[in-house]
């Protein structure tokens, strides 16, 4: 008779430790799905633009005066959020609070500037397919930023309540990952709507 | 005392005291409280299955009404608009509310049992995906029942779906309902992926996964990234209709073909998503009745994954090589060509399993074996439509309708009913009646072929699809009558199935843990399984842990009786993705109202959007936010926050 194989693991982590936990995988799948969503939005832009008549671009040279600094603001907020995460890792609560709070404020700033950017457009949602794509894509992104701000505020509050430690902090890392994702997606949206016209797409 | 962050799990054997301890933490509360808060994958799975069969019945009734209308030439039971709504709602129901959810239901119920785990990776997400499915189903049917069902076919091409041609709320119901339903599919897919990769029994390395897990895993990986395409398409359509955007409207520089792209990016893999798990059911069920392991496990597993990759490839090919009209027209056929090679692998593996085994004829076996036959017929007709000249002749005729029913009924309904005969004893502890089962099978089989085999000829004689009636003397009369009769025979067959289930529910529990003497882990636990599934976490060393001693295999055998006890809380084990080595103790969430609350909020949101009642939509959003906050609030029991805090 052959012998019975039996898994007898040594010490195992109980629940999520650090980033190690299935919650992180969960956020990973969420990010994958959302990334696909934005890919389809950008696909819609390129597909429509490639087949369009000249003059389709309502702004052949999109103004960068607001958009560029705003992009830098959003990317910087990613860094600030990361500093906050480090704060949790190093048990420096004030640093963590500053990081999450700062990133949330910077994110809010981004939304406000984006609002002015929208206001300044000479066209509206229904003007043409370009306009629809522009407003809906950036609108989708703003919605994600707003959700991300909510996440940062929650993490801020929970840190203020002293919930986390370097070991028990998966929520923090997952939330910050989501924020990085929201910022990274903007880079693609920005490149599509503000940079490719300068490179000649759709002109 | 602060609980330890690391622990060496105690090993032991099952005992009554141990079971009592587990029952206390795992059992769902009785009554309504438990009903709305349960996160037990078995309860959720059964709900999924019941709901999906309900939709099968509804879609079936719609089909029968259509078949009455088409039974003879120039009948006027239905107006053209009613007919449009019926075939569109029938397609929507069958594809989105039956074919996919039924497979999710079986997978939900079975996965943790197949994998030797105590629940899915994200039990609350699982509950959410059910509630959203149910709510979206009601939402879509609310449209149909108020005379606002979809009326542009299930794939809903613009411009006919745009407001100029379709001013009613029909397409708004359909669009928003599909976006709503997409949430359920997506979170379900995420859950399946993480469950398959992270919560298997120790030793169940990736090459020991049951084929059904491969099927659902592949489908889920695809769904995760393609469902957003269709959700987006429907959302943009709704905006075009209600907010004057111009995504699909050529008048404003939009692209009607964008709809088709976004829809088929999704639609292509989706067809596999509703057959691959069902093929997995056959691959896992058939061998049990052939009394031998599946022939060519590795080839079948790999071909499952390959089918999906090819499916994506076909879309790309169409996009760049033949341009879009080709994509739109020969969709099902192209899908079939791509599926030909890998599915030939599955067919040969099944045939070889029957050939080399000692088949025991049961109702389940009949359903599984007939799948092979129907699969071949569906494959051949698909292959025929795929050749371009033939395609031009056949496109939009009943040949296509015949083909798609062979694919969908042959590779979804038949294996699913077989799976029900096979696994319902596990779910209820009660066998289905075999005699009634034979009647059930033969009525369905004969009825189905009577209905849909002649339909190929109807198509070859040129009868177009999606017409509400036809003139006399085209040579279609007799064929249509036969089809209608066959449809009713088939429906009676399905009815016999429901009767059989109902009868068995009223019988005594007699199944025992392993009525079929099957090899996989779900048969190691009682029928129905206890809330915690496995009293001790098994360790497996092969694909068929319960058949090891008779297959004369070398080496160690699996450990079912002894294993990790994990009774310090609601716990199960997390394992590594490829080799399934234990790498953490998972703390599982208690029952929770957050999922049902979230689904309610989302339902309010979608109703608000539909009626442009912004207050309702805002309130719904608020409820969603609240539910998410409750859900994600870090909890000590789940070790999401520091114990001392
Ligand atoms: C009693 C069984 C069934 C009967 C009699 C039946 C009959 C029909 C009929 C008459 C049509 C409309 C054909 C036309 O006018 O173009 C149709 C369309 C369709 N059926 Fe079925 N059907 C049955 C079961 C199913 C099942 C189980 C599925 C899927 C799992 C399914 C999926 C579809 C789809 C996708 C369409 C196309 C709808 C469209 O054109 O948009 N059917 N069926």
Structure explained in plain terms:
The complex is a heterodimer of chains A (203) and B (645). Chain A is 70% helix and 1% strand. With 203 residues, chain A is mostly helical. Chain A has a single domain, classed as Four Helix Bundle (Hemerythrin (Met), subunit A) (Up-down Bundle), CATH 1.20.120. Chain B has 645 residues and is mainly alpha-helical. Chain B has two domains: 31-317 and 337-505, Cytochrome C Oxidase, Chain A, CATH 1.20.210.10; 594-638. Chain B has helices spanning 16-26, 31-37, 41-70, 80-115, 123-145, 170-198, 211-243, 256-273, 276-290, 297-322, 324-329, 331-356, 363-386, 388-394, 398-428, 434-460, 477-505, 594-611, 614-632, and strands at residues 6-7, 11-13, 537-539, 559-564, 571-575, 582-587. Chain B starts with 5 loop residues before the first strand and ends in a 13-residue tail after the last helix. In chain B, 59% of the residues are buried. At the A-B interface, strand 1, helix 1 and helix 4 of A face strand 1, helix 6, helix 7, helix 8 and strand 4 of B. Strand 1 of chain A pairs antiparallel with strand 1 of chain B, so a sheet runs across the interface. The complex binds protoporphyrin IX containing FE (HEM). Protoporphyrin IX containing FE is lined by residues 60, 63, 66-67, 87-88, 90-91, 94-95, 98-99, 153-154, 401, 404-405, 408-409, 412-413, 451, 465-466, 487, 490-491 of chain B.
């Amino acid at each position: 008779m052959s012998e019975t194989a039996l898994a007898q693991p040594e010490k195992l982590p109980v629940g999520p430790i650090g980033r190690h936990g299935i919650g992180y995988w969960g956020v990973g799948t969420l990010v994958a799905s959302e990334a696909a969503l934005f890919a389809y939005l950008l696909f819609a832009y390129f597909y429509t633009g490639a087949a369009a008549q000249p003059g389709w671009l309502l702004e052949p040279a999109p103004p960068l005066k607001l958009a560029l600094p705003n992009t830098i603001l959003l990317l910087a907020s990613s860094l600030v959020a990361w500093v906050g995460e480090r704060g949790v890792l190093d048990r420096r609560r004030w640093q963590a609070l500053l990081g999450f709070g700062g990133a949330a404020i910077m994110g809010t700033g981004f939304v406000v500037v984006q609002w002015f950017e929208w206001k300044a457009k000479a066209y509206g949602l229904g003007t043409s397919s370009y306009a629809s794509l522009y407003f809906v894509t950036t609108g989708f992104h703003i919605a994600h930023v707003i959700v991300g701000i909510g996440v940062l505020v929650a993490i801020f509050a929970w840190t203020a309540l002293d919930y986390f430690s370097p070991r028990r902090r998966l929520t923090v890392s997952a939330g910050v990952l989501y924020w990085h994702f929201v910022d990274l997606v903007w880079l693609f949206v920005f490149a599509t709507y503000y940079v490719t016209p300068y490179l000649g797409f759709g002109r | 005392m602060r609980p330890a962050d690391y622990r060496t799990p105690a090993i032991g054997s099952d005992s009554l005291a141990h079971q009592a301890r587990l029952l206390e933490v795992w059992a769902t509360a009785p009554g309504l409280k438990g009903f709305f808060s349960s996160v037990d994958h078995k309860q959720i799975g059964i709900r999924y299955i019941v709901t999906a069969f309900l939709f099968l019945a509804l879609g079936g009734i719609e089909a029968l009404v259509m078949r009455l209308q088409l039974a003879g030439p120039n009948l006027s039971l239905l107006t053209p608009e009613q007919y449009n709504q019926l075939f569109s709602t029938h397609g929507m129901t069958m594809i989105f509310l039956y074919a996919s959810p039924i497979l999710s239901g079986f997978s939900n119920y079975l996965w943790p049992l197949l994998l030797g785990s105590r629940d899915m990776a994200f039990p609350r997400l699982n509950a959410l995906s059910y509630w959203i499915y149910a709510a979206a189903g009601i939402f879509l049917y609310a449209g149909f029942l108020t005379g606002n069902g979809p009326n542009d076919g299930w794939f809903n091409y613009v411009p006919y779906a745009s407001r100029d041609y379709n001013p009613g709320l029909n397409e708004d119901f359909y669009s928003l309902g599909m976006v709503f339903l997409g949430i359920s599919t997506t979170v379900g897919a995420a859950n399946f992926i993480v469950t398959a990769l992270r919560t298997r029994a120790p030793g169940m390395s990736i090459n020991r996964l049951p084929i059904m897990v491969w099927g659902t895993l592949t489908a889920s990986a695809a769904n995760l990234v393609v469902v957003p395409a269709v959700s987006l398409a429907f959302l943009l359509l709704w905006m075009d209709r209600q907010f004057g955007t111009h995504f699909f409207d050529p008048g404003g520089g939009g692209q009607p073909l964008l709809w088709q792209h976004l829809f088929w990016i999704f639609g292509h893999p989706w067809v596999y998503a509703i057959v691959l798990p069902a093929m997995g059911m056959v691959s896992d069920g058939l061998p049990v009745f052939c009394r031998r392991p599946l022939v060519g496990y590795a080839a079948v597993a790999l071909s499952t994954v390959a089918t999906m990759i090819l499916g994506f490839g076909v879309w790309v090919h169409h996009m760049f090589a033949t341009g879009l009209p080709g994509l739109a027209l020969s969709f099902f056929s192209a899908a079939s060509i791509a599926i030909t090679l890998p599915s030939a692998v599955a067919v040969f593996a099944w045939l070889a399993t029957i050939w080399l085994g000692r088949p025991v004829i049961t109702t389940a076996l009949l359903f599984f074996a007939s799948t092979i036959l129907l699969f071949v017929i569906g494959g051949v007709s698909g292959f025929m439509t795929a050749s371009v000249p033939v395609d031009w002749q056949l496109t939009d005729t009943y040949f296509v309708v015949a083909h798609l029913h062979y694919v969908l009924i042959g590779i979804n309904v038949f294996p699913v009913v077989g799976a029900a005969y096979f696994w319902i004893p596990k779910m209820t502890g009660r066998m289905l009646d075999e005699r009634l089962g034979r009647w059930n099978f033969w009525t369905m089989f004969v009825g189905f072929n009577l209905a849909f085999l002649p339909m190929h000829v109807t198509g070859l004689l040129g009868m177009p699809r999606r017409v509400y009636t036809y003139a006399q003397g085209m040579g279609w009369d007799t064929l249509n009558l036969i089809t209608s009769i066959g449809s009713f025979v088939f429906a009676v067959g399905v009815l016999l199935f429901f009767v059989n289930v109902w009868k068995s529910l009223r019988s005594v529990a007699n199944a025992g843990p392993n009525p079929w003497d099957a090899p996989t882990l779900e048969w190691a636990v009682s029928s129905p399984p206890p809330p915690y599934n496995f009293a001790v976490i098994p360790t497996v060393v092969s694909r068929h842990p319960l058949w090891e001693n008779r297959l004369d295999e070398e080496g160690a055998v699996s450990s079912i009786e002894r294993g990790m006890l994990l009774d310090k809380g609601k716990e199960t084990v997390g394992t590594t993705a490829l080799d399934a080595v234990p790498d953490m103790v998972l703390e599982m969430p208690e029952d929770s109202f957050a999922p049902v609350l979230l689904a309610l909020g989302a339902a309010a949101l979608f109703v608000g959007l539909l009626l442009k009642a912004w207050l309702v939509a805002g309130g719904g959003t608020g409820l969603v936010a609240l539910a998410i906050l409750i859900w994600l609030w870090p909890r000590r029991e789940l070790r999401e926050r520091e114990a001392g805090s």
